[in-house]
Amino acid sequence: MLTTSTDVKNNFGKYVRLAAKEDVIITKNGKRVAKLVAYNECNESDDDNHDDDESSGSHIAKENTSAYNFDRQNVTYEEFLEIMANSDERYEYIDGEIYLLASPKTAHQRILFEMSVIFYNWFKGKKCTPMFAPYDIKLKRNEKNKNVVQPDLMVICDLEENLSEDDYYTGVPALVAEIISDSTKSKDYIKKLDLYMSCGVGEYWIVDPEAKETHVFCFKNKNIYLNKTYEFNDEIKSFYFEGLTASLKEFS
Q: What is the mean pLDDT of the chain?
């Protein structure tokens, strides 16, 4: 299948699903620039697996400045909790894979601070509360598939009724925002989009500092209901919270 980069941006969820059936060739200005393909563990070499085992010492996908290095062995939720209990590192756990979170860069932190201020001021006095990382969010696709993520920014509307005895949040955020980097693109655009969509998150913002774009996805019935791509010079508008806007012009 052949399609344009603009169409992929505006209908990303559709093309992720189509990629499971056939390769999607993406064009820009008439030239073929990328290919979206289904992920297949069998395509990875044994040498890659061996290198990952030696470097990590456990079943952890590392997040670094270049790419993710995946260990092919799944980790149970109980094993993940044990690793968390014996480590000072920050991790995410998605569909049986552990991701070691790298330290964010300066641009990431500046954007996060700006967005946090905007969200704080807009939600002040309202029922919903903005929170930011590090803050664990536990999401369940089903009873056997439990996940733990640390979104950069989130809006929680059911905080008081979903606090555990040890003061951890156990609900599902209404809105989640991720500020991506080269090393996190595949996770944030594919794995997290599908996870948030499947687990009841209402809206997902993907902020791309390199492309200077923000993609807003509104979910309904576990599918993408509305989506729009904004340039940093645009006023970003929420579908889920009427009246909520954000501007990242100073970073454009």
A: 84
